[in-house]
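Note to self: keep these together.
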Amino acid sequence: MTCYGGSTTGGGLNYIWYKDNSTVHNGKSYTIQSAEILHSGSYRCQTRPGEISDPAGLDVSDGRVILQTPLYVYEGDEINIRCHHRPRYPGGPTRFYKDNRVIRDWTDTAEYYIGNVDGTTAGTYRCEKQISGPYIYGDEVSVSVEGAAIRPAVTFSPNYKKIFTTESITMSCDGGSTIGGGSNYIWYKDYSPVHNGKSYTIQSAGTSDSGSYRCQTRPGEISDPARLDVSDGWVILQTPLYVYEGDKINIRCHHRPGYSGGPTRFYKDNRFIADWTDNAEYYIGHVDRTTAGTYGCEKDISGQNIHYDVASVSVEELFMIPTINMTPNLIFANDNLSLSCETRLPPARQNRQLRSAFYREGRIVQDFSINDIYKVYNVQLEHSGKYSCAVETTDGRVRKRSAERLLQIEEPFSHPNITVTSEFYEGDPMILTCDSTLSPHIYHTGLQFAFYRDGREVQGFNLSNKYEVQSVQQKDSGNYTCEVKISSNTAVRRSYGIYIHIQELSAPKLKVFPELVNEGDNMTLTCETNLTKHKQNATKLRYAFYRNDVKIQGFNSSNKYEVQFNQEKNVGTYTCEIQTSTGRVKKRSQELPIEGQNDSSLTTILLVSLGLLLIIVIISIVLCIYYQRRSSNNNPQPPTDADHDYSPEGEVSYAVLAMSSRPQSQLPKDNESNVVYAKVKKSKANGQVKSSQGTSDTSTDIYQNISSNR
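Structure:
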């Protein structure tokens, strides 16, 4: 540790070192040869009779990996952050994080370089490193950025870097950080202290005053050198100490005081740019790169001789080409984005005001203003694109544009997907899973999950990606979704919905085998459900059996009840009951009466059954014959020609037709001569009728024999 600055007289004894307010050493530097944990603490140094420094914290670790950062970090610095592993152990690849986001993935380089520190550099950094093979160790540290230590600049008044002897000049130390009065400024000429104070005036310059001047602030930085030339010639060409882009300058052809000057001529790079004129100054209204060169002037002094002088003019860049920076370095959807347009003015132009503008894909998104920050709140994927910025002076004379930088908005996690294992029945346990993958660029930030049914929250945000119901009911049916978020981002993503229908667990059916149970038979009762075998295993139903409402087999995983049938013990009304593993859903079957059978009763039943069957067969045969005969009588067939080959007696139809107007008592008896024999046939003739008595004819005519007694 080294103590810089301060006022000393003599050797190292003028420095005092303190650790945690206790004196530990005297001397400009303090070295700890082999550090131990007890050396950790707050160190300060003091000069006699100077001031005491700000505290500087030192941490000594006994871990495997430490993340090393500079003691002081200022805007504009270039720094290295080092992931350092314990000596004598082999170190492997290293990964760096900032604010829990990966800024450089696994690499063999143990240092992370930042080329231009600004306000966005501040944050919490972490590194991970493989040590001795597969083992990974890490460390983290916070980095704060102090305001840039403003480098002072030397200015001349009058603003010329060449003067004549006997002339006076005042040099000022502009900018820088000071404490107290002028004694905090130190002036150097050719690296030797010559003055203390903010300004340094040379009243009557001599050639010995020529040289390189610098100023320093305590404990700030030292300025760039400013060259002063003091001449004893007749003519000097005076140019400004600093010339920057966009400046307005006068180049002055100055002659020695006390002499009269005549016409003047100016040239640049051996070419005349202003011929003889009474004006001793050459004005340039807008300096650019073409302004640089070698200038000369000639002047008539006292009307006698022409004298001349030359001077080189170099044009400095007013400000660098700007760079566009993003905060944070990795942008996720719903983050707040901050873009800054950064450049740097030289110390001699620190007070020059600039304006900035921002572009996306070449189109302006924020017009020129003194605000060099462009903010976007709650960024979305459509904000991705190529961004650039431009910086200009307030008069627009100097404008520079940055290179484009691609901004890719990332999703902090993948779109969630809600999944379920199978269909569900009442009483089943149900587990819903919400799957999402965290971006690999986010470190140590857990996803949080919430679940909804029909748009209503059923489980609030927590670290579990599962929603469990021990025993579902039909009311748990609905459209389920889940949401995912992370604590370090406002992004919330909701999954697509999945409809879950909780099916009713129907009452079981009780079956017996065999259907007719005899004394001594093995009787098996089976309690059957509407679930498939696979679903039964998933649902894990339990079964119980009852006889006459008395439990005969308690709840277990078997859906069967087996017993050797006993007439006295096992006759009765049976039921079975099912319940889920939690016991919250129960369903009972309908009653099944069971009565036993013995051998004699079985024989009787068989004989009676056979007898009844025989009777049914006989009755069926009789009925069949009866209906056939009846059908034949109701549908007589007409006679054919072949009928004439048979005896008339065999084919005659007899009919008694009594037609009389007398009373019934006077009608003849059956054996009297009023019987009429008639044989009627259908004639082939059309309605022709012939009649005869007691005759028979083989023709196809119709014969009628009708007798009427009146």
